[in-house]
Structures are given as C-alpha cells and as structure tokens.
Amino acid sequence: MSETAYPSTWRRPPRLVKHRGWRWGLWFGVLLYLVLAAGSVEVDIARVLSGLERGQRFVSGFLQPDFVTRWSDIRQGLIESLTMTLTATVIGILISVPIGIGAARNLTPAPVYLLCRAIIAVSRALQEIIIAIFLVAMFGFGPFAGFLTLSFATIGFLAKLLADDIEEIDARQAEAIRATGASWWQFIDYAVRPQVMPRLIGLSLYRLDINFRESSVIGIVGAGGIGATLNTAIDRYDYDSAGAILLLIIAIVLVSEYASGMLRKYLQ
Amino acid sequence: MTDIGHYREVWRPASAARRLTRWFAWLALVALFVFCWQLMTENTIWAFVSDAPRQAADIGSRMVPPRWSYLPALMAPLWDTINIATLGTLGGIAMAIPVAFLAARNTTPSARFLRPAALFVIVASRSINSLIWALLLVAIIGPGLLAGIVAIALRSIGFIGKLLYEAIEEIDPKPGEAISATGARPAQVLDYAIVPQIVPAFIAIGVFRWDINIRESTILGLVGAGGIGLQLQSSINVLAWPQVTMILLLILGTVVVSEWVSATLRRAMI
Question: Above 0.95 for ipTM, yes or no?
Fold first, then answer.
C-alpha cells in the first residue's frame, strides 16, 4: 500500500458555502455589485480635498469645545430636548400599555387584536423624522410637534414589545388566577402585571434613552430641541459650538445609559 | 405556642412601607411630568394646535391619490439609497472589526489604554444619529452619496462594534487553549479558535445592521447626503403632496423587502 494517496498538508474546509461553484459564483456576484455600486458614486476629489481643511477645524472644535459663546441657545435646546423626552415617554407609555394589552393574542378577541397590531405596524413603519415633518406641518414649529412625534414612535416600540412579552407569560399562573373567579381587571392586575412589570420598566427606561437620542435629530426638520441648535451651529460653520453640543449629547446619553442600568438592577 | 394578635382581613401583595415608597415614587414622577410639561409648552402657540385637525385633513386630501407616474423617476435615487446602505454597512464592518477586538476583554492587547479608547469610539458613534453624522459630513466633504456612505459607516461602527465585542467576550476559551498548545502564533489562534466561534453572530449582526441602514439611508437626503430623501425633501419644499405619498409608499415597500431579506438570511445562516 502506498502512502502517497494521503495529502501531506491539512486544508481547512470552507466555512460557509460548501459547494465550490456556488462559492465562486457568490464572490463574483459580490464583486460585480461592488463595481456597479462604486461606479455610481461620484466623488469630487477637489471638493473633498477642500473639505478636509474644514474637517480639521471640526476636529479641533471637538477637542476644544466652546460652551460659552452660544450657551443661552444650547441651554434652551437642552431644556426643550429633555422636557420633550420625558413628557413624550410618559404619554407614550400610558397609551402603549392598553394597546400592548390589546395586541396580545392570549388576552383579546381577534378584532381588537388586529386593530392594535395595525396601529403598532403603522407606528413602526414610519421613521421618526418623517412623522416629525408632517407633525411640524400640522402643529407648527417647536417642541410640541417633537413631543407628539416621540410619543407616537414610543407607541410602536413599547406596545409591540409589551404585547410579545404578554404573549409569553406563564400560562399556569394565569390559569390559577382565573380559577379563583377573578374578573378581567383582576386577572390583568394579579396574573399579567406581576409577570411583565420588570420588563416593562426596563423597556420604558430604554425608550427614554432612545427618545433623547431621537430628540437631538428631529430638531433638524423644525421640531425643537437640541437638534435645531446643532443644525444652526453647523450651518454657520460654528464648529466649536457644534463640538460642544455633540459632547453634551454623548455625555447625557452615557449618563442616562448608566443611570438606567443602575435603576433596572435596583428594581429587579 | 405564641398567639398572633390579629390577621389582616384583606390580602395585600406588598407591605405598607413598600406601598408608601411606591406611592411617593409615582407622586414624584407625576410632579416631574407636570413640571416638564409646563416648561415645554411655554412657547407653544395653541391656536396652531387647535387648528391641527383641519391642517391634517387638508394635507391628507392633497396626498391622495399618489402620483404613480413619478415612480420611474424614483428608481435611480432608490438604487443610490441601497448603495449608501450597503457600502456604508461594509465600511462600518471594516472599521468595527478592529475596534471590537480591541474592546473585548479577552482579545485586547492593552486593557488599560486601548480598551477604554475603543469603548469611547463605540459610545461616541452610537450616541450620534446617522442624520447628524450626515449633517456634519455634508458640511465637510460636500453633498452627495459619499457623505451618506461615510455617515452610515460611522454610525454603524458603534452598533456592530458593541454587539461584536460582546460576542467575542462570550466565546469558549478552551479551543483557544487547544490551538495555542499546538504551538500556534497569536494570529493563528485568532484565525482558528476565535473567528470560527463568532462568524455566525458576526453575520447576523451585519445583516441586521444592513436592514437598519436601509431605513436610515432613505432619509439621509433630507440633509443633502443623497438617495431618495433628496426627492422627498424637494417634493415637500414645493408642496407636491401626491409625489410625497408616492415616495413614502416606495420607502415603505423597500423597508418591508429589506426586512424580509434580512430575516431570511439570518434564518439561513444560524
């Protein structure tokens, strides 16, 4: 018996696509797409080079932020953003709890279920910024439109996750409460609420976080908040103030992420 | 046997002290809410608010029917939008992989200096919305697709980096020990022990982010960063509401398709 039949080195088998032809075909397809896509991007080298100097100024503005010159504008924007975030989260939660209960398959009859799921789908499909454009057109400029936008967006997020959570509750506890002859309200209060409350609190705090981040964006289309201030600062090429605003946003997001983590640990 | 004085007639799920603290927590929340509400609505013009239903009906009546003949003109911007999302995701992945390996506790070369730096990159990228990145980049490198691609890439670093470094920290250390026991160099340990363990998570994260990026790239045009958002902005500016409806329908369709693609891909991979 000859030993030459064995390969002398080990080759690692392919990781994802086993068939050789498919693998080459896939690579070829990816390459073709990249060539086509890159071809449709027009890069104006001269413009980019002239912009690099501005980029440098932005980086230096970020490293040496100027909080003082525009402080009154920044302060006003921050107050609007923070108040808008809190009120929108509270109202959003208040509306999304009944919708979430309505969208849980195990609690409600089919027509209510479909209606609530439809509301959730509409709220989730539209981007915050697009909703903000419409609400600004209807309610005028300012944080009130932003408040409505964030409340609406909160419904889709919170009601969906709450409904999914309610659908996964332990059926044995629910049955035990039902067996005591509890009314529908008592059933919700004693069987469902204790099981979903910790997660609902966690999700609410998470949404508070998201709403703050979003509140810094919807100002760009006129819905108030720190985004409007930031937009103005960038339009004026006032990079020192823009850097200050971005640092404030990052700091607030960090603090709120840390605080909500602590609070969640404490509450559970 | 000790005698217990009396029993409560009604069972309560929480003790009195607990109920009191809870009650005060709710009171504080309500007070905070009222305070914030006052502050927020200081400058609200209520005439506009009470006028809103009429405005809504007005805009609504102008929005239907959508202008279907506008659809062919939207195909080129749609292609740009998909390119922004895809190339941006690829760029984000390329930058996020080294950041993730520097941020993971078990692969970082220096836990004291490089790890905090990598974590800061992740947090900074995550806190700033892609629209704000686009706003900055349009000012710096000029309007167009490139600004959009870079904005999406910069925003993706944080998301992909965070999820990927968490996946790296959760790997089983034993294969790594086995590979290094064969005399493998650190790079080979990475290649043969760590990478195979995180590839499925990595693909799922990348596809998930691509799905999100499709959504986000549809609106980047609002600040001049290319894609279908440009058409949306110009249609809104000239109050061409039937065109706006058409664009929104197309965006909705694209989002649904991308969600389906990403769900199918993730199911096939894992």
Answer: no
